[in-house]
Amino acid sequence: xxxxxxxxxxxxxxxxTTCLFWALDNFKEVETVTFNYNQxxxxxxxxxEGIAKELGVKHRVLDMGLLNQLAxxxxxxDDISIEEKxxxxxxxxxxxxxxxxxxxxxxxxxxxxxxxxxxxxxxTDFSGYPDCRDVFIKSLNVTLNLSMDHSFVIHTPLMWLxxxxxxxxxxxxxxFEFVRNKTLTCYNGILSDGCGECPACLLRKKGLEEYxxxxxxx
Length: 218
Description:
Elements: E1 5-9, H1 14-26, E2 29-36, H2 43-55, E3 58-63, H3 65-70, H4 97-112, E4 116-118, H5 134-148, E5 153-155, H6 163-172, H7 176-182, H8 199-217
Parallel strand pairs: 1-2, 1-4, 2-3, 4-5
Helix pairs in contact: 1-6, 6-8
């Protein structure tokens, strides 16, 4: 893979930024793509742009406003609260998001000569989103290759990692402080450690504490 090119689906959050550092470590050339679906916080796109610029990576933003029209949820509507109810998908689930993002990333990647697509989806520490499952990614990989007659490989470096392991990966890549201080994971649009109260912040904080405890014990 060292001599090949990858495109990273990039939001500027902890997971996708860790994946970006992973891609930079594994590929000769890397570019990023961020999707503007009129999400709750424009800050997400600004953070992604800033990180890509700081790391010297080509970055593009694609307009996915149609997704906002089709999928009302807590990430696309200010009047829908962020909720997680037992037995139901969280109100932050955006129907079809990863299906569309990965499909458009593949189209962009083929045009720019990238055979590898990197995404930060994870089946270990996740909110039950069906489009984060390994079986979905494998299925879509086959579909993309057939639809475009091209040999893409979708990489999911975080698929079987919990959040503590994701922090460890960032640390192993020499990116721990960068990821902690410069990424945006918070559903309320607050950089770094975030609001500390939304589901995304709680998951991130729990993983961070677990990793730091493990590291100290070693």
